[in-house]
Write a structure and sequence with these properties.
mainly alpha, 10% strand, two-stranded parallel sheet
């Protein structure tokens, strides 16, 4: 199962991104074989936002 974040949320302030990551991870924990994705990445998204999200997910395990 693939669970996407809401479109464009990755370009929002970190608190919004973190909340969305927590939401999709909670959904993923309910499935035995789930993948979390960004869906759409807006063109002007800073690369740092993606790297921070990836690091946060790595911390969650």
């Amino acid at each position: 199962m693939r669970i996407n974040m809401r479109a464009g949320v990755i370009a929002q302030p970190w608190a919004v991104v973190q909340g969305e990551l927590d939401r999709v991870c909670a959904l993923a924990q309910q499935a035995s074989n789930a993948v979390v994705g960004t869906g759409i990445i807006p063109y002007d998204t800073p690369p740092e936002a993606l790297l921070r999200a990836r690091a946060y997910l790595a911390e969650l395990g």
